[in-house]
Please model this.
Amino acid sequence: MKTRILFLFLACIWQGTGLLAKEDENVESILQQAYDLDTSHPEEAIEKAKQAYEIGKGINDAVICSRALSFYARITMFEGDHELGLRLYLNALNFCPPDSISILADIYSGIGWGYTELDDREKALDYIDKSLRIYQKQADTIGVAISYNYKGFIYYRGSQYDRADHFFHLALDIFRKQDNQRNIAAVINNLCMSPGNSDEKVKLIQEAISINQSLGNMWSIGENYNNLGKQYYYLHRYDDGLLALERAKEYAQRAKAKNLLLENYQLRSLIYAAQKDYPMAFNAAQKQIELDKEIRSEKNIRDMERYISNQELLKLKQEYELQQKKHDLAILQKNWIITVIVLLLCLLLFFMRFRWFKKKKEMELIARQYELEQSQCRIMELEIKKKEETIGSIDNELQAAKEKLGYMLLFLRSRNELLEKIRNMIRETYKMEPFEQLTHLKKVNTFIAQYQMEEQQDELALQIEEQNRDFSKRLEEQFPCITASEMNLAVLLRMNLSSKEIALITGNSVKTISMTRHRLRKHIGLKPEEDIVLFLQRI
Model:
């Protein structure tokens, strides 16, 4: 059950991770579409950027929100609404997490672009340099090239054309090494805005036109033809310039790029004036003024729309912050629940490990006790076996001694009977004649000689002493106060002989044996109920 709960918990996390991965993949696709459409179909690109922003807001992803706003700002800048574009870039900066370095660098570049269009070149250079340092630190060559391009544009706006061309060439070299056709065309267009080296720039702008035609970027083609007309103006090739401007007008109208048309009429006025065709110059200037009024009017409308949009953005930001707080609270609650679950799992694992460790210790203790008991049993078995062997040996010795003593007792009984016969034979001698007495006494002497046993008795005593030497040593060590007679009695008692048998062997009376036996019991500290024979046999 516990394993199942853990599995379900991990499965939920995995499922949530999978959903987020799919959402991220979808957003990436939408943002790429916005990037691809930014110059060819700007309105569609803006809708894609807004769509990505809504997704990012829905999943509380600040990174996606900042990227979407950055794309939105980029397209707005291309459309000529530089103030709104700058505001969008600044909002993107507010959303962007500090650790998203690459995105942060892109936003810095966009802010620099916005300040450039608003003629705040000091702030523009400050933000462009910020982005450049990040790109250089990350070894992002594309980012470095983009920063060089922006710096060139800033110096162009300040009429520092040599410095501008220097940075444009730096950017162009990098993009050519990367074979980045889109950005090659963009940098070439910027390079061809300024006077100087016009022959070279005519060739370059034609390259840019070819690239943008393959990419289908109508807005960029219109801008390229405007710059081509400008370079022809610098070369005093006025007819070629007017042809280029006519092509630029066609693409600007198709792209609905009024800013390009405004620049187009301005360049026409300059060329017509150089040709001394003042009516056409006046006519072009008049169209320029009318279009400028129209743009200004639209700008006023956009300003109102911008105000409304800013309010909407503020509202969206507030909604986002509210959702973010709710999301953070939900995350906090989720993290708390996860923390509690993890703690409970840790406690469970700790408890199970503790029980296992305790059980292991108990089993180890039981095993050690069992081994100890087995060892003690083996020792006891050896001791028992040794004692049994000792007892067996003692029993054998006692049995052998007892048998010998039996023979000895039998002999002693026979001797007593013999002595009784000898007394009777001696009494008979008193009744005989003197000559008969000598012969009879010889018979008695011969009879006695047959039963002499001193040597046998001494030999038996030595054997008994030898067989019981170890016993006597042990008895003396345990009870050093016993006497020699008590020691001899203990040896005979150990052989389970009766007092009469002992008296017969020792030649002492039964009473003497009993008294010695009493002293022996006292010296070895036996209680009245204890059997002295069994006690002596255990020593």
